[in-house]
TrEMBL record:
<dbReference type="Pfam" id="PF00459">
    <property type="entry name" value="Inositol_P"/>
</dbReference>
<feature type="binding site">
    <location>
        <position position="221"/>
    </location>
    <ligand>
        <name>Mg(2+) 1</name>
    </ligand>
</feature>
<dbReference type="InterPro" id="IPR022337">
    <property type="entry name" value="Inositol_monophosphatase_SuhB"/>
</dbReference>
<feature type="binding site">
    <location>
        <position position="89"/>
    </location>
    <ligand>
        <name>Mg(2+) 1</name>
    </ligand>
</feature>
<protein>
    <recommendedName>
        <fullName>Inositol-1-monophosphatase</fullName>
        <ecNumber>3.1.3.25</ecNumber>
    </recommendedName>
</protein>
<dbReference type="GO" id="GO:0008934">
    <property type="term" value="F:inositol monophosphate 1-phosphatase activity"/>
</dbReference>
<comment type="similarity">
    <text>Belongs to the inositol monophosphatase superfamily.</text>
</comment>
<feature type="binding site">
    <location>
        <position position="90"/>
    </location>
    <ligand>
        <name>Mg(2+) 2</name>
    </ligand>
</feature>
<keyword id="KW-0479">Metal-binding</keyword>
<feature type="binding site">
    <location>
        <position position="87"/>
    </location>
    <ligand>
        <name>Mg(2+) 1</name>
    </ligand>
</feature>
<keyword id="KW-0460">Magnesium</keyword>
<dbReference type="InterPro" id="IPR020550">
    <property type="entry name" value="Inositol_monophosphatase_CS"/>
</dbReference>
<dbReference type="InterPro" id="IPR000760">
    <property type="entry name" value="Inositol_monophosphatase-like"/>
</dbReference>
<dbReference type="InterPro" id="IPR033942">
    <property type="entry name" value="IMPase"/>
</dbReference>
<dbReference type="InterPro" id="IPR020583">
    <property type="entry name" value="Inositol_monoP_metal-BS"/>
</dbReference>
<dbReference type="GO" id="GO:0007165">
    <property type="term" value="P:signal transduction"/>
</dbReference>
<feature type="binding site">
    <location>
        <position position="70"/>
    </location>
    <ligand>
        <name>Mg(2+) 1</name>
    </ligand>
</feature>
């Protein structure tokens, strides 16, 4: 492993502690207890177990830090210290259907970042089935295991493979998504929708996808992934082209050349609505 800060080691240890149980649960998914949080919004005992393990491990390492996690919500810590932003299982729909495309996402948010406002300083995304970890530290690059990550160098929309997240039953704006899709899909080489926003961003950072757009995302879906994209030389904004607000959850990410082309199509489709 390439040398990295103590915090990345802490995140890695916690993720690799929760990983084997998540893999075991995945192999016996038909026996798992599942409940519904919204019309098509499921949560399983595996989500909760993974979250509990991550909280327990991270609390051991940094006892006074707070948390923002998907299932338990906010756990208050020392307001002057960083907090963890965690999705213990991103891609639950895939998980419950036996599709091995899911991950854990862990980020560190410094309450007083470089400009005195909250800022993500570390991100770690772990896919237990492939054993891949994508991670970044602010200002120190993005990595897949010990390999430096770089967003794709493709410049032409006609060569670009673009990921998105599609609204689903009870969630998101179908009309808006359809307009954007109608503008982008005819111009690019392909569109993918695999159902894990955190992995979508990690794959943009790794140059597997050339771009990604989605809205109505939660902080735990994107906190780690956005930093990994930026540290891999990528560009991420909201649909207006301004800095992403993780609380608002609107993202367009790509290398900078493709970002401006995609943004033109996206903004045009919403203007003509
Ligand atoms: P989750 O698996 O952590 O719930 C953005 O698309 C996010 O929406 C996904 O990363 C996923 O996170 C969440 N989501 C919840 N229910 C979903 C569904 N039925 N289909 C797709 N994504 C869903
Ligand atoms: Ca969920
Ligand atoms: Ca999620
Ligand atoms: Ca989740």
């Amino acid at each position: 492993m390439v040398s990295h800060s103590g915090l990345i080691t802490v995140m890695e240890r916690a993720a690799r502690k929760a990983g084997p149980r998540l893999r075991r649960d995945f192999n016996e998914v038909q026996h798992l207890q599942v409940s519904r949080k919204g019309p098509a919004d499921f949560v399983s005992i595996a989500d909760k177990r993974a979250e509990d393990t991550l909280i327990e491990e991270l609390q051991k390492a940094r006892p006074d830090w707070g948390f923002l996690v998907e299932e338990r919500g906010e756990i208050k810590g020392d307001p002057n210290k960083p907090r963890w932003i965690i999705d213990p299982l991103d891609g639950t729909s895939n998980f419950l259907h036996g599709i091995p495309h899911f991950c854990m996402s862990i980020a560190v948010e410094d309450p007083f970042g470089s400009q005195g406002k909250p800022e993500i300083t570390h991100g770690y995304i772990y896919q237990p089935v492939t054993d891949e970890s994508f991670w970044a530290e602010k200002g120190r690059g993005a990595w897949l295991q010990d390999q430096r990550l770089r967003v794709s160098a493709r410049r032409d929309l006609a060569d670009a493979l673009i990921a998105t997240g599609i609204p689903f039953l009870g969630h998101g704006n179908f009309a808006e998504w359809s307009r954007i899709f109608g503008a982008i899909a005819p111009e690019v080489a392909g569109i993918r929708r695999f159902g894990s926003a955190a992995l979508d961003l990690a794959w943009v950072a790794a140059g597997r996808y050339d771009g990604f757009w989605e809205s109505d995302l939660k902080p735990w879906d994107i906190a780690a992934g956005l930093l990994i994209v930026k540290e891999a030389g990528g560009f991420a904004t909201d649909y207006r082209g301004t800095e992403v607000n993780i609380a608002k959850g609107q993202v367009l990410a790509a290398n900078d050349g493709l970002h401006s082309k995609l943004h033109k199509l996206l903004a045009g489709s919403l203007r003509n609505a």
